[in-house]
From TrEMBL:
Name the record gives this protein: AIM24 family protein
Pfam families xref list: AIM24
Domain of life: Bacteria
Length: 226
């Protein structure tokens, strides 16, 4: 019975975070190197790992999270292997080496607890939206795992004058140093996005990347808030 399933066995640990297939995250846990992960994302683990839902550090930052935007987090600590997933979504692993990334809270699966993070208003959209947009910024030295509804595309914005336009409902993450502004489109409202009203796009320019998923699921995603 083991022989037909041998191809699905976990590979030897090669890094703190890595994919097992496209839809699962494997984390090598060590004492003193805690992890913050989306509540309910644990699907299996080996060894001795403890979980603390909504720890004090998260509660303090979560005060800035306005209702409707944010992801409940749990602190994972201990030694062993931890497997995480989010309803079969693709998993994207990023190793930050002093850089920063801005992420939709609903696309955030897990990240090292030593990283600096917080909720920030997206600059350049307050005038456009009348209220503004909020996102989660993560920076420092460590690992981050994101989810994508389908295999994502990573667009390099380069440094030219051309802008990259993204439907907000398909946006996963972007380099926070990019310039962001909003664009309204009346004529394209029946072609862009899933809404029946005025179509909105986010325009990115500068040096950096934008991660876009092949889905426009607007349920519990980055949204305009006051």
């Amino acid at each position: 019975m083991n022989q037909p399933l041998a191809g699905f066995a976990p590979a030897p640990v090669g890094a703190r975070m890595e994919n097992h297939g496209s839809h699962m995250l494997k984390v090598a846990m060590q004492t003193g190197n805690d992890l913050l992960a989306r509540m309910g994302s644990m699907i299996a683990y080996e060894g001795f790992i403890q979980y603390e839902p909504n720890p004090p550090a998260v509660r303090q930052i979560a005060r800035d999270w306005i209702t409707g935007e944010g992801a409940p987090l749990m602190k994972c600590s201990g030694d062993g292997l931890l497997y995480l997933a989010d309803y079969g979504a693709n998993v994207v692993v990023i190793n930050l080496a002093g850089e920063a990334i801005s992420v939709n809270a609903t696309n955030l699966l897990a990240f090292d607890a030593n990283l600096q993070w917080g909720v920030e208003r997206v600059k350049g959209l307050a005038k456009f939206a009348g209220q503004g947009l909020w996102n989660t910024k993560i920076s420092g030295q460590g690992w981050v795992a994101l989810t994508s509804r389908g295999e994502p595309i990573v667009v390099d914005c380069g440094g030219g004058e051309d802008e990259t336009y993204v439907d907000p409902d398909a946006l996963v993450a972007w380099s926070p140093n990019l310039k962001v502004k909003g664009k309204r489109s009346f004529k394209a409202q029946s072609l862009i996005g899933r809404g029946s009203g005025e179509a909105y796009q986010m325009a990115f320019s500068g040096q950096g990347i934008v991660v876009v998923q092949p889905s426009e699921d607007s349920t519990d995603r980055l949204r305009f808030r006051g």
